[in-house]
Amino acid sequence: MKKFIEGSYAMAEAAKLCRPGVIAAYPITPQTHIVENLSQFIADGELDAKSVNVESEHSAASCVLGAQAAGARSFTCSSSQGLILMSEVLFCIAGMRLPVMLVCANRALSAPINIWNDHQDSIAVRDAGWIQLYAENNQEAVDLIIASHKIAEDPKVMLPAMVCVDGFILTHGMEVVDMPDQKDVDNFLPAYDPPYKLDVDNPMSFGLLGTPDVYQETRYAIQKTLEDVLGMIPEVGKEFGDKFGRDSLRLVEEYKTTDAETILVAMGSVCGTIKDVVDREREKGNKVGLLKIVSYRPFPKEVVKSALKSAKHVGIIDKDISLGSDGALYSEIKSLLPSDQKVSGFIAGLGGRDIKLNSVENIIKMAREEENSCKFVDLNKDILWDKFKTI
Amino acid sequence: MNKQHLEENYYVCGHTACAGCGQSMAVRIVMNAAGKNTIVTNATGCLEVFSTKAPESAFGVPWIHSLFENAAALASGVETALAYQGKKENINVIAQAGDGGTADIGLQALSGMLERGHDALFVCYDNEAYMNTGIQRSGSTPFNASTTTSPSGKISAGNPRPKKPMVEICAAHHIPYSATSSVANPKDIEIKVKKALKIKGPKYLQIHVPCPLGWRIDSSKTIEVAKLAVSTGLYPLVEYEYGKLAKSRKISSPKPVSEYLKAQGRFRHLLKNEEALAGVQKVADKNIEYYGLK
Ligand SMILES: Cc1ncc(C[n+]2csc(CCOP(=O)(O)OP(=O)(O)O)c2C)c(N)n1
Ligand code: SF4
Ligand SMILES: [Mg+2]
Predict the structure, then answer these.
(1) Which domain holds residue B97?
(2) Among A217, A244, A271, which residue terminates a domain?
(3) Which chain A residue has the Cα nearest residue B118?
(4) Same domain, A185 and A290
(5) A contacts of B54 (beta carbons < 8 Å)
(6) Residue whose C-alpha is closest to residue A143's, from A112, A179, A118
(7) What distance in Å separates the CA atoms of residue B216 and residue B126, rounded to the nearest whole number?
């Protein structure tokens, strides 16, 4: 049913449609509305789940780890400092092969403290072994939350999934969202029936000491599974599409790339702005396109390579930076492409700096000119370090 | 390991604890008192390392470990999932940790578990230092004990602070049960575990468990030393119910603390330092008065 609703409400409803048994989350802007809505659903008897008002994000993640291990489908959500506080546990959840579901309302990291959007938080935990999907809009956020459960909980996968949604832009944005029906979701997503759990009738030990004799194999196993997930995303995406009529679950979206000379690459809500610019450029006769990355982990190397194969200029936009190196997406993609292809990296939108239409136009222009690995966009040169030493 | 041993115990031999490890003895008593219908969450520390080296495990009940500071949060999740599945009535949830995983890095998660009223028992195996990483001081290290990060030296008598009063900190949450016990008295552990598990709600049990390696005692002296801790008044065995002191085990004629201290390398420096020795005696005297041990 189509509804004009706030993003956080839509995401909470999507989580509810998946019938979680245990929810544990700790409030942090801009994630708060998601957990508040879920609490209200429970308080009103609309959602049969147990919610734990934990005392920190570290305990939120630990609590869902324990709950999932005990056989309950479990959900958490966080942002920024909260996600980073969870990071120790995030690695454990994946290492222990528990398909926990997490929504990350993306927000910049301190210091300076900043509540606005960029991707530094989820990028900082990209190596944890989680499936990481980025939504462009609230419809995609809803769809990815539902669809990724199916992959994560597949007995062949058993890995956690993180759906990344841009803080404020999506979480607080009002949009029309087509909310799936409960019975369709029930049909699509069977009850959680894990191949292993904490069970007094079949006692097993979880989280053992992994010596050098076994540790590396555990990492190899996760890597292999994530490679398999690359193949499953289009399959489950098709099944989801057949049922719900949308192709939100996919590895990438190619927007007017087929004949494009210049292709921008980005993730998340900024892709909406980029599509507008692409349309305008096309009207002017410029062959521009967008490659939107949906699945950042696992990273679809071959798909990305082939999508960018014939582009003369590639401009990669990162809302994150590996300080002392380059943007994460740039480093990842640059290494895939031939060294004579012109590939530039742009850092934009950090800490909520608006990426405007003309910011994107500038990026296109710069990508066509000299090659840069790490060009900051829309920098205000008047407020650089000298003046702000004390922030 | 014979079949009978495997069938009769929920924590079996074959683990790699040091000889005479008090913690390892106490765990078996706790597990067997709790019985089959128990799920255990475990913090990082000696216990987890010596009992569950992949692919083996000494535990005969479902057991889960993930990190150092989150045993109580894991237990909160397990208990909540069982409640959601309608299975909580028949299953005990026990969170267990060393004194570091309890009193220091795990305190926040423990306080959360107690405050939220989860139906789970938290067991702290108190060997009075971070043993797994090489005998560093914890908040539960006793006054004037020498550890690798609170060493005695020319101008130091060792750890300058008394033990963090964990049993009171837990009791202050007004939980139904907060108690101490000692591996010197296996029956006491068994009774307290069984009693705690009969009560619905959050419970705390702290067990004094000598560590021969860290305390520098002979591995045959574990129980003897643990007994002296109780009989000198340095480790009072007490029970709090709903925040109030309900019971304490009497010691009619307390022994001088020097008897306890002289048996251990971590206190040896005190025997030549009268003032520092008197400081430890004062701790015992205070306990005897405060808990009415005589
Ligand atoms: C976050 C974190 N910090 C530090 C460590 C290192 N570490 C592992 S066990 C341990 C000490 C454990 O002490 P305690 O809880 O008293 O248990 P014991 O080994 O003495 O039984 C430490 C410091 C860790 N594993 N994780
Ligand atoms: S170091 Fe101490 S606590 Fe650790 S196994 Fe050895 S005796 Fe037990
Ligand atoms: Mg210890």
Answers:
(1) 3-290
(2) A244
(3) A52
(4) no
(5) 208-211, 214
(6) A179
(7) 16
C-alpha of residue A278 to centroid of ligand 1, in Å = 54
* Nearest CB to A70; choose among B61, B70, B81: B81
Specify whether the CB–CB gap between B119 and B93 falls below 8 A.
yes
Give tens-digit pLDDT for B193-219: 999 999 999 999 999 999 999 999 999
Average of per-residue pLDDT values in chain A: 97
What's the pLDDT tens digit per position in A323-343?
Answer: 999 999 999 999 999 999 999
Interchain CB distance below 8 Å, A54 and B54:
no
ipTM, two decimals, is 0.96
**Structural domain of A342:** 252-376
How close is the nearest chain B Cα to the Cα of A207, in Å?
Answer: 5
> Which residues of chain B neighbour A68 with C-beta distances below 8 Å?
77, 81
- Residues A240, A266, single domain; the answer is no
A95 and A130, same structural domain?
Answer: yes
Report the residue among B16, B18, B52, B218 best suited for mutation to probe ligand 2: largest number of ligand atoms under 8 A from its CB. B18
Examine the domain organization and report whether A211 and A263 are in the same domain: no
Question: For position B263, which CATH number holds?
Answer: 3.40.50.970
Among A244, A262, A287, where does a domain finish? A244
Same domain? A174 vs A214: yes
Are A91 and A125 members of one domain?
yes
Residue A190 within any structural domain of the chain:
yes
Shortest Cα–Cα distance, B90 to chain A (Å): 10
For residue B188, how far is its CA from the centre of ligand 2 (angstroms)? 22
| B9 vs A: CB within 8 A | no
Sign of the Cα torsion A53, A55, A57, A61 reads: negative
Are the beta carbons of A200 and B52 separated by less than 8 Å?
A: no
Question: How many CB atoms are located within 10 Å of the residue A247 CB?
Answer: 15
Q: Do A55 and B115 touch (CB under 8 A)?
A: yes
**Which pTM was predicted?**
0.97
Domain count, chain A: 2
CA A64 to chain centre: 19
The dihedrals phi and psi of A69, each to the nearest 5 degrees, come to: -65, -30
A125 CB contacts (<8 Å, ≥6 apart)? A83, A84, A86, A87, A90, A162
Q: Give domain status of residue A390, yes or no.
A: no
We report the CATH number of the domain holding residue A327 as: 3.40.50.920
Total domains, chain B: 1
Give the closest residue to A177 by CA, choosing from A3, A329, A16, A33. A3
Residue A145, classed as helix, strand or coil, is: helix
Cα distance between residue B130 and residue B134, in whole Å: 7
Q: Looking at the domain assignment, is residue A74 inside a domain?
A: yes
Tokens of A190: 């069977």
User: What is the Cα–Cα distance from A266 to A245, expressed in whole angstroms?
Assistant: 24
A55 and B74 in contact by Cβ < 8 A?
no
Residue A205 to residue B69, Cβ atoms within 8 A: no
Kindly state whether A210 is in contact with chain B, defined as any CB-CB distance less than 8 angstroms.
yes
Could you report the per-residue pLDDT of A234-253, keeping only the tens digit for each? 999 999 999 999 999 999 99
Asked if A177 and A272 sit in the same domain, the reply is no
Kindly report the CATH number assigned to the domain that includes residue A153.
3.40.50.970
Q: Does residue A382 fall inside a structural domain? A: no
28-67 in B: which are within 8 Å (CB) of A?
36-39, 41-42, 48-49, 52-57, 59-67
**Does A42 score more than 70 pLDDT?**
yes
Is A217 in the same domain as A330? no
Q: Is A285 left (phi over 0), alpha (psi -120 to 50) or beta?
A: left
